[in-house]
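Minutes, methods subgroup
Present: GH (chair), OT, SY

1. OT presented the first of two proteins processed in the latest run. Sequence and structure tokens recorded below as shown on screen.
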Amino acid sequence: MATLADVAKKANVSKMTVSRVINHPDQVSDELKELVFKAMKELDYVPNFAARALVQNRTQVIKFLILEEIDTVEPYYMNLLTGISRELDKHYYSLQLVTRKSKNIGSYDGLIVTGIRDEDFEIGVLDIEKPVILYGENTRGYDFIDVNNKKGTEIATEHVIKRGFKRIVFLGIDLLEEQFMISRLAGYEEMMRRHGLSPESYFLKNSSRVAEQKGIELLRYNSEDIAFVCASDRIAIGVVRAGLSFGRKFGENFAVTGFDGVFLDRISSPHITTVRSPVIEMGEELARMLLRKINDAGASQDNILFEPELIVRGSTTGIDTSF
């Protein structure tokens, strides 16, 4: 069985360098990591992480706590989990999915939390001693990663304005007190006012069926050109169906944008113009940030907002050019 010394000899580096590559890869250059990992692969060397965990009082377990109904956000979380697990695997960490009831069962080194709401802060859901990173904007002082929600609705709103629409309705999720929704509403309203247009907003459950009914309500006695900026692709799907039921012409007298760009935007017909979040990349950074926090004894790691991307498709142009 190959040893650490064998890897060091094969890579022509010191044992200390090999140890740093294994235990603290963020502190080592990419060139050195590639050299050491190549030697490890050629020698079929597997680090003894059980021994290291025992010495460092680590479990090599990260928990991912989901605090919202999973059926309203799938397959979004599959992409997020892909990013998180991909990065954790590099550091020989395992990922454990937990709910609010099971979060305290079993030992772990750190926690990634998503779907947290104001009421969860009030009842002390995060009253734990382990390092925590949140997925989602917050103003409570916790480290977080999110997409730039405000910029996302800004670029979506600007897009339909440039398409010639004057009446542009924002359909938000009925979580008005949550920071991500505050930011998405702010981006829409700011862009509307910048162009001298009047904001018009409604808030509803994150459901395509509910959104379809709202769309029908707004279209039934209205023949004017109208665009919808939606706070999720799920809501956008419902509005697209409402437009189809009234024979609206996408890109001419009707337009719809979504938000997320993970999967639902591509199952609609026409495909939905959406604000895409780089979810896998955000998952990878969530893992990196939490591991840094663990190694820094829980020290704050600050916050990161990822740039959104507008993917233009048939729901605003009438022609699908991107999938």
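2. SY then presented the second protein from the same run.
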Amino acid sequence: MTSIPLNPMPATSLNPAASRSKKPRNFRFSPSLSGYLFITPALMILGVFLGLPILYAIFLSFHKVEILGEMSYRFVHLRNFTRLADDGRVWIALKNTAEYVAIVVPIQTFIALMLALVLNAQIRGKNLFRVVFFLPTITSSAVLTLIFMWIYNADGLLNHFLEGFGLPTYNWLGDPNIALKSIMIMNIWASAPFFMVIYLAALQDIPESLYEAAKIDGANGCDRFLNITLPLLKPVTFFIIVMGIIGTFQLFDQSYIFSGGSGGPNNSTLTVVLLIYQYAFKSLEMGYAAALALLLATAIVLATLVQRYLFKEDMPQ
């Protein structure tokens, strides 16, 4: 006769694998999935306020839009784009914008680097200088433009200053040969401090040990700048140049305020964005304005790709 144990062991204790299988599992997201979930709200906002307007602009560029009365769209194929090639004002705006970009971007980048080098040195009151230099960046663009209109006036501060030194005065706002350059001077003065701060942060990130090793090897200040500072600043320089190109291609408010929205004198301050505004909100040619906007976007992308190609050997992989 077999005896039955008083306290038989449970079946799960005899099968450890079965016991483990019944334990609750903690569900975890993969790191990549967690990252996508975190950026989903930002992507939705970008899609609504950036992606959809881009798609709508592409749609408009192939249509003639009637906005007076009941809004209607008439498909015109590539007529808006072919019209761009025959529009003389488009070529003037492109020329002015290209000239503005070609002059402002290199000068503001150079000045920003020089200011950053000065403020990165051990000088007295450098914190005060940082604040003073950065003030134009946080000031409203419209306010700065109105201030410079007063400075550029025929009886303004700048001409009085030139007269004091016996130098010739100019019609800064009324001369077609000078008007655009007046905007350049103002924007270089206002935008260089912003890029100065970026350069300054990059300079402070360069290890001091590299300079100390170069000093031990007998390198002078110029050698250290050319062989250490500039190469290590190339990724930052690429970012600054690309941001500068994008910003200068989109010149609008200064040109609008200086010329009263006309792009004068003699179309000398007419830019692509100002021309888009004129066609869209004065002539009410939304389709043609959208085609011009796509042309501007294409120019910005191409300029960025060129910069990427020029800096590709120095960019981190």
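Chair's summary of item 2: DSSP finds 14 helices and two strands in the chain.
Next meeting: continue with the remaining queue.
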